[in-house]
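Thread: quick sanity check before group meeting

JM: Hey all, I'm pulling together slides for Thursday and realized we never actually wrote out the predicted structure for the chain we discussed last week. Dropping the sequence here so it's in one place. If anyone has concerns about the input, flag it before I start.
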Amino acid sequence: MAETILSIILNMNPPVPMPHGACRTAQAEGQTTLGDLRPGERATVTAVCSRGSLRGRLLEMGFVSGTDVRMVRFAPLADPLEVELHGYHLSLRRAEADTVLVERV
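JM (edit): ok, ran it. Output follows.
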């Protein structure tokens, strides 16, 4: 089983899960979720509020604090959505995007 460098680092230093209440507090302080962005808007990732394997997968895809993202477009029924980060385009379900906290730039 081939492991990525990030997964090896995460296994050495597992991420501390963010308490569910902390995500609500962050949203109340003016931060929003990735799913709330409109096409063309840019934002900076502040936190990933999901847990378990979804959290690890989002971190491996590059959704770490300080990463700049741009909302590209939505599918016709607004799910999935396409974002650009680290020079590549990525499609996410809206439920997954709603676990990524961002701050509009």
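AS: nice. Confidence is low (pLDDT under 50) at residues 13-17. Residues 39 and 71 are 5 Å apart (CA to CA).
JM: adding both to the slides.
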